[in-house]
Amino acid sequence: MNTRSVLIAAVVALGLLAGCSSDPKKTETPETLQRAAPVRTSPAPQPQQVPPAERARMHTDLGAGYYERGQMDVAIDELNIAVKLDPNYAQAYNVYGLVYAVLGEDRKSEQNFERALQLAPDDSEIHHNWGWYLCQHKREREALAQFDIAVRNPLYKTPEVALVNAGRCAITIGDMRLAESYFRRALAAQPGNALAAYGLALIAYKESRYADARTWMKGVMQTTNPAPESLYLGMCVERKLGDQQAELSYISQMRNRYPDAPETKAINTEGCV
Question: Which of 1, 187, 204, 205 is the most exposed place for a label (fewest CB within 10 A)?
Answer without folding.
Answer: 1
